[in-house]
Amino acid sequence: MRKYIARLLLTVVVSIFALSSLGSVVSAQDAVLNLALNSNPPTIDPALATDTTSGAVIDNVFEGLTDVMPDGEVVPAGAESWEVSEDGLVYTFKLREDAVWSNGDPVVADDYVYGWLRVLNPDTASQRANFMYVVEGAEEYNVGGGKPEDVAIQALDDYTFEVTLKDPTVYFTELLAMYTFLPVNRTVVEANPQWAAELNEDYVSNGAFDLAEWTLNSHVVLTKSDTYWDRENVALDQVNMQITESASTLTSDYIAGNFDFLGAPYGEVSLDSIEAFKADGTLQSEPYSAVYYYTINTTDPDMANVNIRKALASAIDRQSIVDNITKGGQIPATAFVPTIIPGFEEDMNYFEDADYDQAREYLAAGLEELGKSDPSELDIALSINTSEAHAVIAQAIQENWSRELGVNVTIDNTEWQVYLDRLTQKDYQVGRIGWTGKFNDAMTYLGIFETAETGNNDTGWEDPAYTELISLATSELDEAKRLEYLKEAEAILMDAMPIIPIYFYSNDYVQKPEVQGMEYDSVGRINLKNVSLSE
C-alpha cells in the first residue's frame, strides 16, 4: 500500500467556488485538492454508471474487492485476500472485517451479493451488466429469464464471498476494480430505492471519501471518510470538483491557480493551450487504453449501407487531426483495439487513412444501392456532446466529408446526459464517443459489440460470426488461440464498419508541482486515495 505524507495547508485554499458554498466545509489546516469536471455526473449509482465523469466520483467514494495500481498490479482492496480453485472457476474472497459503510454498518459479503444481483436485475437496466456475464448464471438472469438464485455468487458467511465463473477468465480480478462490481448497502437501498437519485442522507458508501456536496452545474465535494478502514493512509481531507463544460474556461482557471490538476477525467486542457504548455515544459502526455471513435446508427436507412459507412471511414484525415488539432500525442486509429493492449501492439491498419479515392468508390457503390444518383442527395447528421474539442474535430471531419465526398453534413450538440440518452435510444445517425478500457485486455473493446443488445452497443449492429468468436475467446484457455479469435472478431468489425475509429487517446494533463500521486492506471483511472500535497 502506498503511503504519502500530506501537506498541511497554512492558508485557506481559495477556488472559484470555495468562496461561497464551500467556505464552511474546510479549515485552514486541511489538505484540499481542487479539480474540475466537464459535466454533471450523469449518475452516482454504481449500477447505472457508464462514463468517466460518473466514475471520477463513484470510484473514489466506493471501494470494490480489488484495485489496480498504475503499474497494472491488481491489489487487495475491500477483500484482504482471495483463493482460486485449481480449475480457475471458483474465487473465494476474504473480506476485511474492519471495513464499514459511511453510516457505520459493516460491509459484509451479502452487500456484494445484493449489489451484483441489482446490476443483473433486468429492471435495473444497467448498461454494464454484460461485464458480469463471466459469472455462471449471470447472463441468463439478466437477459434470459433466469432466476437470481441461479447466479453463482454467495455469501458463505459475513466476510466470505464466493464467485463461480462460467469459464476461467484471466482478467477477472482486474475486472473487479470496475464500478459495476461495487457492493451497495442492502439495508439502505431496500429501504429507499431512490437512494442514489440525488445526494441525500441515504447515499451510503464505503470508500476513502464521502460525497459531501453535489450542486448541479456547480460543484462536487468529497471529504475524507471518518469510517474508511485505511483512513490513516488517506492524505487528502477534501477534494473540490468544479463543473464547467468549457475547456478554455477550465484552462484559464488552472493558469489562475484555481485548480491543482487539469486533465481527464478531471476536466481537460484546451486545445489552443497545448502548444504553450508544451513550450514551458508543463504538459505531460501518457498513452492509455482508450479510443476516440464515431458510432453509426445502422438502423438508419442510409447508415444501414455498409459502403456508405466505409466511405465515411476512409474520408477522414486522422493524421491531420492529431497533428493540427489535438496535438497531444494521440495516434491515428485504423483499427478499433488500441495498440497499448497486449497482443495488439501492431496497428492492423484495416483501412488507409484519408484514402479519398477509395472513399469515393465506396460512396458510388452505396449511393447506387440506395437508389440515389448524386452525393448531394445524402444528408448526414453528425452528433456530438457539448465540448469545444469535439466541435473542432467534428468540423474538420465535416470538411473532409463535404469536400471529398460531396455529401451534406450538419453538426448538432447536446449536453452530456441528454447526449447519452440519444445514443441509447438510437436518436442519431453518426455520433461521437470515447471508450476507455475497463481492464487491460482486448475483450473490453470487442465485447461491446457481441450482440445488438449488449450494453453500450449503440449501433444496432450484430453478426453471428462475430458473436461466436467473442464466445470462443471468452472460454479459450490457450492464450494464442484466444488472441486469434479476438483478432478475427476485430477484422469482422472493421469490415462491417458500424463504428469509425478516429484516434487512440493519450492522457494530456498539467498539474501543480506540489501534487503527488496523481497517477493513471492502464485504463485512465486515478485513485485519489493515493494523492497528497507536498511542501
UniProtKB/TrEMBL annotation:
The yes or no answer to whether the keyword Metal-binding is present is no
Q: Which family does it belong to?
A: Belongs to the bacterial solute-binding protein 5 family.
Q: Where in the cell is it found?
A: Cell envelope
- What Pfam family is a match, any one? SBP_bac_5
Sorted alphabetically, the Gene Ontology BP terms of this entry are:
peptide transport
Report the protein name in the record: ABC transporter substrate-binding protein
Signal peptide boundaries: 1-28
This protein's source sits in the domain of life called Bacteria
Q: Which UniProt keywords apply?
A: Peptide transport, Protein transport, Signal, Transport
**Keyword Protein transport carried by entry:** yes
Named from the GO MF annotations, one term is:
peptide transmembrane transporter activity
Q: What's the chief localization of this chain?
A: other
Q: Which GO terms describe its cellular component?
A: ATP-binding cassette (ABC) transporter complex; outer membrane-bounded periplasmic space
For the Solute-binding protein family domain, which residue ranges apply?
73-453
